[in-house]
Specification:
alpha+beta; 6 strands; about 10% strand
């Protein structure tokens, strides 16, 4: 995708719907139990708009991550209400689906917590048995984190509710691609688009893991050996730096199309073959409603596709 085709439109799959956002507003679109598509505005804007320092490279990536997690959580909880998943069924509230989806979205938190600590404890145990692993320790830790992350994605993809969520994820990507291609937003046009998008959160997670291997491998070449709590705290404290670098790389790959971008984007796109699925026509309809809503003036009802590019072209 050339830079001229890049838009500032993004989104997130939620329970029976999609949360879509543009530079102007964010909207939640959900298919209700009676088959209707309802839309609700979501809290929009960023603290980065108030403080210039938060718009600096690296820093903006950390802020964006935290805000995305907060908005994503609110969107999921509200979508569960609109989709009727908290209604009583046979005397029991159906909350398990919501919890499973939240587990999927909070995968980043697991990467920061369990995915950071467990590999380190494993390496500590191996070094007590085999002796120092030297420069290979950081590499082995990173590879084990990637393996855990891949296993987590595969296992969650087997859950029925997660499979449905991944179809909406695919609908979101396809619809955005159709819009960026300048084609009319119809089910037929959207169907032929790719569901693998370079700016996806799945690609971001892979970049965080991959860049962390490179970053910490170089770092430990200049630092004395660290183990246990000290090593964990150092890695945890520097994760915002890794996330900031990953965000900048992801932004670049989303705006350009060259050999470097294709190489960097390839692993994340392959992971999206698991975290996205081909959507149904009904799910594509929800994505179309969400995308049109974020580009429509609520007062005049006029459609403004240029809104998607206003900030992206600065």
């Amino acid at each position: 995708m050339s830079k001229s085709k890049y838009s500032a439109v993004g989104g997130q799959a939620v329970m029976e719907g999609i949360m879509m956002r543009s530079p102007q507003k964010s909207v939640l679109a959900v298919r209700t139990p009676d088959g209707k598509i309802v839309t609700e505005p979501m809290k929009h804007g960023s603290v980065r708009d108030k403080y210039k320092i938060l718009r600096l490279p690296l820093i903006r990536g950390v802020v964006s991550f935290v805000e995305s997690m907060a908005v994503g959580y609110r969107s999921l909880m509200r979508s569960a209400e609109l989709a009727g998943l908290e209604e009583e069924t046979n005397g029991n509230k159906v909350l398990s689906s919501v919890l499973m989806v939240l587990s999927s979205v909070l995968g980043v938190a697991l990467a920061v917590g369990l995915f950071l600590l467990l590999p380190q404890l494993t390496m500590d145990w191996l070094e007590r048995i085999w002796g120092s692993l030297g420069v290979f320790r950081t590499l082995l830790e990173g590879v084990s984190r990637m393996a855990l992350f891949l296993l987590y994605i595969i296992l969650t993809s087997l859950m029925k509710d997660i499979k449905n969520l991944y179809r909406y994820h695919g609908a979101e990507h396809k619809t955005i691609f159709c819009f960026e291609a300048g084609e009319e937003l119809t089910i037929e046009n959207i169907r032929k688009q790719s569901r693998l998008h370079p700016r996806c959160g799945t690609s971001f997670l892979f970049l965080v893991l991959f860049i962390s291997i490179l970053f910490f491998s170089v770092l430990h070449c200049f630092l004395p050996p660290m183990h246990g709590l000290v090593r964990f705290l150092v890695h945890l404290a520097l994760l915002p730096v890794v996330a900031g670098i990953s965000f900048e790389v992801l932004q670049y790959t989303g705006k350009h199309d060259n050999l470097f971008v294709r190489i960097v984007s390839a692993p994340g796109k392959q992971l999206q073959r698991i975290t996205t699925a081909e959507p149904t026509d009904s799910q594509i309809e929800v994505a179309i409603v969400a995308l049109r809503k974020i580009l429509t003036d609520d007062i005049s009802g006029e459609y403004h596709p240029e809104w998607a590019y206003r900030k992206a072209q600065k």
